């Protein structure tokens, strides 16, 4: 019996190609997924990114699905949010082959039910894992068929319908696709808009020859920052490998925090639906719920992770949700995450007024933050308890454990300390009134974590 515990993660399947993941295993995963969704659908839509291994693995998965009598709609090359669009618009379960920002040797599968509803450990992944480990039962009926469908133009038209840029002033925008799927989707999405795109690394290359396709790591946006300054551009956008996340830099080449983008987009969505609910995870800036409330919205705080965000959006009818990791979720996009739609909102807001992006986003950036700081530890629980005990003994401190350890200090500063699900790491995020207060609090916490 195969052991899939190393590759079946909380939200997806991911592993090293040739070692943990190969065509034979992926075929079984396709069969198991078909068995899972047979009661709700007779077809599955499949897309894949530009990694060298993706076409073969996507074809193997399709073979597994059709071996169980279900049909496959193949959309070929796609961003992850393009696959979500296909799942939503066609009302079909979906499979996206990508390892997002992971190095070239990795690949993986993001799965969803009809309408882009997430499939995680508790909503199907564990069942798929068990089915494969125990041996997928053969289907004696007729095989399904595979048809091809190009949805890129429809995806682009749908996004442009949601954000009106017709009244925008002309903008010059540098886009770093990181040799990922943004290089495939951006030209079609931005076609006809009053935006001059300066492309960087648009060539599809799953070996990522220029830099890792992970824009949250500061070293991966250095080229973008320099190009924005060199071009005198109005803004810069950086997409991750599967182009479902988008990171923004302003006209000075300075990073704009995903929390500020969350607040900006939230305000725009609240203009369309006053009083609406906005989801934010507990690591986003406390400025997000403040701004949402000031604009008449209802902020709701959740754990980190797309399954929690999407579940809370379904429960509350939320119109929008944002995470510190530059994932942005829209009710109008089947509650799925799409960095492209968030980018269009930012550019629309910028184009509607005459000032630079730095002035616009300053309204939504109220506090200083550390960014995520990782510490390798021998015992995650013991180190977290040491932090809890140390800060819990101080006057006026409030502690909650919704997701890891969140500690609110009397002066307004706060931090969250969370264990990694996959590595012996503790992840620290700190926010306070200014950079000096952030530095002092960070050093205070790390002295205990690493002590």
From TrEMBL:
Instruction: Please list the GO biological process terms of this entry.
Output: carbohydrate metabolic process
A GO molecular-function annotation: metal ion binding
Protein name stated in the entry: Phosphomannomutase
Q: Which cofactor does it need?
A: Mg(2+)
Q: Which CDD domains does the UniProt entry name for this protein? A: PMM_PGM
Among SUPFAM superfamilies, the record links this protein to:
Phosphoglucomutase, C-terminal domain, Phosphoglucomutase, first 3 domains
- Please report the stretch or stretches of sequence annotated as the Alpha-D-phosphohexomutase C-terminal domain: 372-446
Q: Keyword annotations for this protein? A: Isomerase, Magnesium, Metal-binding, Phosphoprotein
Sorted alphabetically, which NCBIfam families does this protein's record hold?
A: PRK09542.1 (NF007088)
Q: Which family does it belong to?
A: Belongs to the phosphohexose mutase family.
Question: What InterPro entries would the database entry show?
Answer: A-D-PHexomutase_a/b/a-I (IPR005844), A-D-PHexomutase_a/b/a-I/II/III (IPR016055), A-D-PHexomutase_a/b/a-II (IPR005845), A-D-PHexomutase_a/b/a-III (IPR005846), A-D-PHexomutase_C (IPR005843), A-D-PHexomutase_C_sf (IPR036900), Alpha-D-phosphohexomutase_SF (IPR005841)
Which part of the chain is the Alpha-D-phosphohexomutase alpha/beta/alpha domain?
A: 8-134, 154-253, 260-367
């Amino acid at each position: 019996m195969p052991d899939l515990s190393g590759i079946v993660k909380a939200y997806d399947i991911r592993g090293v190609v040739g070692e943990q993941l190969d065509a034979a295993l992926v075929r079984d995963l396709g069969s198991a997924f078909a068995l899972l969704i047979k009661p709700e659908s007779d077809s599955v839509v499949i897309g894949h990114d530009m990694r060298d291994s993706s076409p073969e693995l996507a074809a193997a998965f399709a073979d597994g699905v059709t071996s169980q009598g279900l049909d496959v709609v193949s959309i070929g090359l796609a961003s992850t949010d393009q696959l979500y669009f296909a799942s939503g618009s066609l009302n079909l379960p979906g499979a996206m082959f990508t390892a997002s920002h992971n190095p070239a040797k990795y690949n993986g599968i993001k799965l969803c039910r009809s309408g882009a509803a997430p499939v995680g450990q508790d909503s199907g992944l564990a069942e798929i894992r068990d089915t494969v480990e125990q041996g997928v039962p053969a289907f004696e009926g007729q095989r399904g068929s595979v048809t091809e469908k190009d949805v890129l133009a429809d995806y682009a038209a749908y996004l442009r319908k949601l954000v009106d840029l017709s009244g925008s002033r002309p903008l010059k925008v540098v886009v770093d696709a990181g040799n990922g799927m943004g290089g495939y989707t951006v030209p079609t999405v931005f076609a006809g808009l009053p935006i001059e795109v300066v492309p960087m690394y648009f060539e599809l290359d799953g070996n990522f020859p220029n830099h890792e396709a992970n824009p949250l790591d500061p070293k991966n946006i250095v080229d973008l920052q320099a190009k924005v300054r060199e071009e005198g551009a109005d803004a810069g956008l950086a997409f991750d490998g599967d182009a479902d996340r988008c990171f923004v830099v302003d006209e000075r080449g300075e990073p704009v925090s995903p929390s500020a983008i969350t607040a900006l987009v939230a305000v725009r969505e609240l203009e369309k639906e006053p009083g609406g609910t906005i989801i934010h995870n507990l690591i986003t800036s406390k400025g997000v719920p403040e701004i949402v409330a000031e604009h008449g919205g209802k902020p709701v705080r959740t754990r980190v992770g797309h399954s929690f965000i999407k579940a809370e959006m379904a429960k509350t009818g939320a119109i929008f949700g944002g995470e510190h990791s530059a994932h942005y979720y829209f009710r109008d996009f089947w509650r799925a995450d799409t960095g492209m739609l968030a980018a269009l909102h930012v550019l629309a807001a910028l184009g509607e007024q005459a000032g630079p992006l730095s002035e616009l986003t300053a309204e939504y950036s109220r506090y200083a933050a550390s960014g995520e700081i990782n510490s390798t530890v021998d015992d995650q629980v013991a180190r977290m308890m040491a932090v809890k005990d140390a800060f819990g003994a101080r006057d006026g401190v409030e502690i909650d454990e919704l997701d890891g350890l969140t500690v609110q200090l009397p002066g307004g500063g706060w931090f969250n300390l969370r264990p990694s699900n996959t590595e012996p790491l503790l992840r620290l995020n700190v926010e306070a009134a200014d950079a000096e207060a952030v530095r002092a609090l960070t050093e205070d916490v790390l002295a205990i974590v690493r002590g």
